[in-house]
Amino acid sequence: MAGWTLGIIGGSGLYDIAGLEDRETLRIESPFGAPSGELTTGRIGTTRLVFLPRHGPGHVIPPSALNSRANIDVLKRAGCTDVLSVSSVGSLREDLPPGVLVLVDQYIDRTFAREKSFFGPGLVAHVSMADPVCPRLAAHAARAGRLVGATVVEGGVHLVMEGPQFSTRAESHLYRAWGCDVIGMTNMPEAKLAREAELPYASVCMVTDYDCWREDEAAVEVGHILEVMHANTTRARALIHQLALSLPAERSASPIDSCLDWALITAPEARDPAMMARLDAVAGRVL
């Protein structure tokens, strides 16, 4: 067993982590292109953290332009053992008001303009996404949120849309009929790629607004979202700090750590050497 190195992908409003000891900036290149920005690493207690701003410094990268493959790849290269996503979402349920933090455990992926796998022609792999979120990491994050006074809901279905536009009312009603709880634009294909990289993944979804299914209210506006986002970011920072302090000193193995053991389909003699070289961090353990 060894310690935790927790990758934090900061979403809208969360562009840095305060309170890091031994703070250092890392510039790591990826064969999958440029990540969203530099990594910031340091310690809180005995936990090492590696922070990446999902949308870049100053929020310059829209959802469809995110290079999630590069982001996950550099976190893996930085030695992360687990990844916690923080993102802003809209609510599809009356009982999930703005300000609530939702630790989702399922996704419906409605994105269509993004690279969704590290694998492809020359090296084919299929990982299971039946349970896309690491229950251990999600439970630790939920507990940390409650300890800092946040209202936390465990479990929920996250509808990930392409964006950057918000939903139509018809779409919002459809997603509610499907049983979705929150809606956002960034957790997919991020969660899929984390699984391919054998990184346990959990997501803190910060509710900023009700999606436009409420017929008697005005549609979603960025100005209102930004107001709620500021308070949510304060809660998220406190959660991350508490999570780092609360994690066990020793990290026991997770089944996700070895999920590629049975995922590779391409015969060893038929594997593309160039693909294998690109996957040195993501899949080097099994290649």
Write the layout of secondary structure elements.
Elements: E1 5-10, E2 21-26, E3 39-44, E4 47-53, H1 68-77, E5 82-91, E6 101-103, E7 106-110, H2 135-147, E8 152-154, E9 157-161, H3 169-177, E10 182-184, H4 190-196, E11 201-210, H5 222-246, H6 273-278
Parallel strand pairs: 1-4, 1-5, 5-11, 6-8, 7-9, 9-10
Antiparallel strand pairs: 2-3, 3-4, 5-10, 6-11
Brief characterization of the structure:
This protein has 287 residues and is of the alpha/beta class. Helix content is 24%, strand content 22%. The longest helix is centred in the C-terminal third of the chain and has 25 residues, at 222-246.
Which key terms come to mind for this protein?
single chain; 287 residues; 11 strands
Descriptive notes:
With 287 residues, this protein is α/β, with parallel strands linked by helices. The chain has a single domain, classed as Rossmann fold (3-Layer(aba) Sandwich), CATH 3.40.50. It has 6 helices and 11 strands. The chain has helices spanning 68-77, 135-147, 169-177, 190-196, 222-246, 273-278, and strands spanning 5-10, 21-26, 39-44, 47-53, 82-91, 101-103, 106-110, 152-154, 157-161, 182-184, 201-210. α2 packs across α5 (222-246). The radius of gyration is 18 Å and the shape is globular.
